[in-house]
Write a structure and sequence with these properties.
10 helices, globular, 292 residues, 7-stranded antiparallel beta sheet
Amino acid sequence: MFKILEKKNIGPDIWQMKVHAPRVAKYAMPGQFVIVITDKRGERIPLTICDYNRKEGWVIIVLQVVGFSTNRMVALNEGEAFSDFVGPLGQPSLFINEDREELKRKRFIFIAGGVGAAPVYPQLKWLAENGVKPDLIIGARSKEQLILMDDLREVSSDVYIATNDGSEGVKGFVTDVLKKLVEERPGYYDECVAIGPMIMMKSVAEMTRGMGLKTIVSLNTLMIDGTGMCGACRVTVGGKVKFTCVDGPEFDGHEVNFEEAMRRQGMYRKEETESHKCNLDKAVEDSHNKKA
């Protein structure tokens, strides 16, 4: 069992949990993920590692409530435990194996959309610990959905914000900010890392292709099983079939077939929505029965 040490609400339907998992913490690297199972009847939920502490043996995950299983996860409180917390899985961030001196000479621009801020944070933290502080663009629908802002500012150089409604930063999209930055400093950035909703990463990759700016994306939202056995996270990268959970989750954004990836991501949306509605209805009925 994996005890929940801390739990806090950090945004609308967005929760952060610190979990005691010494083995995962010992080997975790930025870009990797864990498979979380709430109890013996729970399904496998892949979640990117947001932070870890090898000495104290904890790992932080961030999840957004979107359906039945994530609702069950956030129903657990501090002191309770997950049945399984497996990892670290997947490949570490691609820059981990680069020569440290060459890495220090590179100028990165990171782009985080929504809860994509969670997997971006450990990458920025690792880079900062190795003498690199990239610029960061953060996007969200509104100010309330901006998460981990203090942590992200600490490990970034300059931070730029874009919200759809204009409640914080620039009113618009992360691509609007990226375009402005590149126009102001042509050729300044060497590499872009974008993590967030699939449509956001697609838009960023399309823009940076024209700029000649190398772009890495994370397809973690495609994962289900986490071992490559289910095949649900198949994606075409550079004309070859890859499995996000074992070959990724990070890939060259200019080689990803985003149309295919977006179709695959939406395959079970109807069933998930119906399941979520049924369980909400049941919860309401149970509540009424208790009052009666």
